[in-house]
């Protein structure tokens, strides 16, 4: 056992030294690539009159792009140099959260998806219980669950980003803001104003939970299909919003998402009306929730609209090329059919 343990320690030290050497080599290579990029830029300006020189510069740029992709893949296999401010604040700056193999990263992502699925079901069930049993203790348990859920999501997503997931900044911010909402509700006293808003809030939580379950189910299937076809990134995750790869057949979920965003705006309106009325007696929780719901709703609508517009522009730009290829294919088919008929007649 001691012999095996000594060998293990030696291998660990060897791995650590190799990682450090590889990171230094990558850092140096990136520095050299930056110098080459500046050199190519100057050569490109000088080669404006020479066609031969342009071809040489174009070839070098293609090789640089290949090298950039290789370097990125190599960097992904090494521990991250920086966990980011959020993880450093929570876990400390000297803790390495990088997973060494693609298999470990994929398993962590899968566990993250399972966690979201199971907790969302628990939230939906607890919301139904809170609807039928109007007890403040049940509402408090639901709010504690929501705070814990969104706090855990932010930490897990920060780890996923370190390990290669391309999570958009807004959805991370969305989860940070979502942590605060149930926390504010916990401090809200059980009065007439709270009871007036309570049923609308429970209905909203239940609706969003159902939409998230449906979206998670279809997004997971789409991601598996894209990954198997080599069109998607292995560490892409399901989100509460809408992304470009969802146009692969998930556009039917878009009306339900937009309805949820409009529901959020309705909650903003109802909270504002309650705040300016005498029934809420100027409770700070009302205007705080009104502000947070407003920011979340506008951020969701803005981000989703940008994705849709970008996708429509991309498809519009690609349409002439697709149409030309279709005509070319059809013309070849027609010529082949004419040629076959000619041979048959002979």
UniProtKB/TrEMBL annotation:
Q: Name the source's superkingdom.
A: Eukaryota
A Pfam family this protein belongs to?
A: TMEM120A-B
Q: Where are the transmembrane segments?
A: 115-133, 139-159, 171-188, 194-214, 252-272, 284-303
**Keywords of the record:** Coiled coil, Membrane, Transmembrane, Transmembrane helix
Coiled-coil blocks: 33-60
> Is Membrane given among the entry's keywords?
yes
- Has the keyword Membrane been applied to this entry? yes
State the compartments where it is located.
Membrane
Any one of the GO CC terms: membrane
Record membrane topology? Multi-pass membrane protein
Q: Which family does it belong to?
A: Belongs to the TMEM120 family.
Know the name of this protein?
Transmembrane protein 120 homolog
This chain's source organism reads Caenorhabditis auriculariae
